[in-house]
Description:
Blueprint: H1 4-18, H2 23-35, H3 37-58, E1 62-69, E2 72-79, H4 82-87, H5 91-94, H6 110-122, H7 127-141
Antiparallel strand pairs: 1-2
Helix pairs in contact: 1-2, 6-7
Amino acid sequence: MELSPLINSLQQSLKSTVAPAGKDVAEAAALLAQSLESAARLCLLEAMSGAADEITLALENTSVEARLRGQDVDFVVNELTQTETTTAPTESTESQSNDDVARITLRIPESLKDSVEQAAKSESLSVNGWLVSAIAAAVESAPQSGQGARHGKRNRSYKGFARS
């Protein structure tokens, strides 16, 4: 789905609204309209992603994802087979049933995103489900506070001397 016509319509509406106020206000509104483009795209993407989540919850054996491709949004509908629905974790089990679900924006290199999509597909999971599982596994295996940082490299001590 191309977002540019929607953004252009929003920008044009803002310009039309302030046009009677004079040239200076119209110029300020034009600058404001341009600066709002990325925020408007993000809001539209979040709305579409939320709609996809609600549709997924309403449908059995089907997941709907909103994917950003460049500046456009694509909707992907995946029909799950019976074995996938019984083996794939659901969002409620992924979030450990009692936790609220939080939404975050994750920016990763395109090559890593492609690898994540392939890994998720090979395990018959959605990208979100695969990421939640990977994060949960990383958190569970992480050292507790005070026991060292990532990969156990913090709090190492060295003994000896050095000459300069």
